[in-house]
Write a structure and sequence with these properties.
Layout: E1 18-23, H1 27-39, H2 47-60, E2 64-66, E3 69-70, E4 73-76, E5 82-92, E6 102-111, H3 115-132, H4 136-140, H5 144-166, E7 169-172, E8 178-181
Parallel strand pairs: 1-5, 3-6, 4-6
Antiparallel strand pairs: 2-3, 5-6, 7-8
Helix pairs in contact: 1-2, 3-5
Length: 191
């Protein structure tokens, strides 16, 4: 029997999809930069599709969540969740409730056919970011690997929870009885 493991998912935030810059001129420039990062290493969607989807989502409402963080996202016909981060030393004022300039843009591409599946994870991630922000040393290090690991831990923690709640493995044994186990529960032989 094969078990579902979080390890079967590709990295959500490859360090090459993280960029540190001193300043940026406008929100459009932010979305241009995020689009460039999000399309790296994939061929499922075009640059134009990613950019348009991010802009369309932003038109529905500001994605700045506070603590200097924005989480723009788009739903597209892709296989796996993808993330990119743009860190801007001199942020933009985007109308966040806490009136802080936005310096960290965490962009997410969500598989169109898995909107509901990722909804709870994104809500939890936003809450963590609103309550805790991001450690200053992680940002000031300008270390893409460190920032990638930090966000992978946040995202995978939520994804692991999501998977354990929504996905079970089913095996039919020789007696035609069904046995289920969550990915974190080891399989046991029926007696």
């Amino acid at each position: 029997m094969t078990t579902t493991s979080i390890n079967k998912y590709p990295p959500l935030l490859d360090p090459e999809r993280i960029k540190f810059i001193k300043k940026i001129e406008s929100k459009k420039c932010v979305f241009d930069a995020l689009t460039e990062l999000l399309i790296k290493g994939q061929k499922e969607v075009t640059k134009h599709e990613v950019f348009d989807a991010l802009i369309e989502r932003e038109k529905l409402g500001n994605t700045s969540i506070g603590n200097g963080i924005a989480v723009p996202k788009a739903h597209l016909p892709i296989t796996n969740l993808r993330a990119a981060i743009l860190v801007v030393k001199k942020g933009l004022y985007l109308g966040a409730a806490d009136k802080q300039a936005t310096t960290i843009f965490l962009a997410l591409l969500i598989p169109d056919n898995q909107r509901d599946q990722y909804s709870m994870m994104l809500s939890t991630l936003n809450q963590k970011l609103i309550l805790n922000g991001i450690p200053e040393n992680v940002i000031t290090s300008k270390n893409s690997d460190l920032l990638s690991k930090y966000f992978e831990n946040l995202l995978y923690d939520d994804l692991q929870t999501l998977m354990s709640e929504t996905e079970t493995n089913t095996e039919i044994n020789s007696n035609d009885s069904i046995r289920t186990s969550t990915p974190s529960t080891p399989d046991r032989e029926d007696e």
